């Protein structure tokens, strides 16, 4: 009797342990292991800062209005909603073995080092440093392997493509905000078509910014470590992960824009006179 009572818990425990060993990580676990959840958490601030500075530089609206628009924008984008969109799409599009492979990569020391660098460089507070050091780093790496690896990195990560999409989203947000403050009624679809028409021009400008960011972000990453990262991004699981994440984020930051103009107009509308 005692032997049976001892054997049963041991069998149950061994079965539970076996389940823990063989179960593939879920999409949320993979996202947590990657830098994506940390970077997504910065997106509302990134969008807000980009739009706020863009409005100030354009001179089209007073600084206080630009700050107000920035506030509305930051509250229009939810990091939790973006992350949920990414998780759902990963679950739908990646197999268990692909999620496992991605999780294994991000659990490695090299990936953790690279992830830390990417998170730090994604913070809006790092933007001025990236711009300030761009000429120095461009000269430092001119003709080097690091410079030559950029094309491979950009193709595998879709960095420029993603940055152009984000830039268009920012400009569309700015245009929606300005239209909301103007007496001229411009339909959202018209604004979108006009800004989309600038995509080819934006690609050149944004491409240079992505290159500057690439040199800054991976400055303390060796060529060998960067090569391992590129191998991952070019692998089946890495490519699938990167593609799903990029598309999910773009969808999540584009969807709220159409409604944002109305929110800004309501937020800045003068209070009704007393008695009316």
Walk me through this protein's architecture.
This protein is an all-alpha fold. It is 82% helix and 0% strand. It has one domain (25-268). Residues 1-22 have low confidence and may be disordered. The radius of gyration is 23 Å and the shape is globular. The protein has 15 helices and no strands.
Offer a concise description of the structure.
Residues 81-139 form the DUF2059 domain. The chain is mainly alpha-helical. The chain is built from 15 helices and no strands.
Search tags:
276 residues; mainly alpha; 15 helices; 0% strand; disordered N terminus
Task: Set down the secondary structure blueprint.
Layout: H1 2-22, H2 27-33, H3 36-58, H4 63-76, H5 79-93, H6 96-106, H7 109-122, H8 127-141, H9 145-157, H10 159-181, H11 188-196, H12 199-217, H13 223-234, H14 236-254, H15 257-268
Helix pairs in contact: 2-6, 3-4, 3-5, 3-10, 4-15, 5-14, 6-14, 8-12, 9-13, 10-11, 10-12, 10-14, 10-15, 13-14
Pfam family, one: DUF2059
Keywords: Signal
Protein name: DUF2059 domain-containing protein
């Amino acid at each position: 009797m005692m032997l049976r009572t001892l054997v049963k818990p041991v069998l149950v425990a061994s079965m539970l342990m076996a389940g823990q060993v063989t179960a593939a990580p879920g999409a949320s676990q993979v996202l947590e292991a990657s830098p994506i959840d940390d970077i997504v958490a910065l997106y509302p601030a990134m969008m807000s800062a980009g739009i706020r500075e863009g409005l100030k530089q354009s001179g089209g609206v007073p600084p206080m209005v630009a700050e107000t628009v920035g506030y509305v924008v930051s509250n229009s984008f939810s990091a939790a909603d973006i992350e949920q969109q990414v998780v759902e799409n990963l679950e739908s599009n990646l197999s268990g073995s692909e999620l496992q492979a991605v999780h294994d990569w991000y659990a490695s020391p090299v990936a953790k080092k690279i992830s830390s660098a990417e998170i730090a460089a994604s913070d809006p507070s790092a933007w001025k440093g990236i711009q300030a050091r761009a000429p120095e780093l461009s000269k430092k790496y001119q003709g080097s392997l690091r410079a030559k690896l950029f094309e491979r990195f950009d193709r595998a990560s879709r960095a420029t493509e993603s940055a152009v999409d984000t830039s268009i989203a920012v400009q569309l947000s700015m245009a929606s905000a300005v239209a909301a403050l103007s007496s001229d009624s411009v339909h959202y679809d018209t604004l979108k078509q006009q800004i989309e028409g600038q995509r080819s021009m934006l690609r050149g400008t944004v491409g240079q910014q992505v290159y500057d960011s690439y040199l800054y972000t991976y400055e303390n990453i060796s060529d060998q470590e960067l090569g391992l990262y590129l191998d991952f991004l070019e692998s089946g699981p890495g490519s699938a992960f990167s593609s799903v994440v990029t598309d999910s984020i773009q969808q999540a930051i584009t969807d709220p824009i159409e409604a944002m103009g109305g929110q800004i107009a309501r937020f800045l509308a003068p209070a009704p006179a007393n008695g009316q």
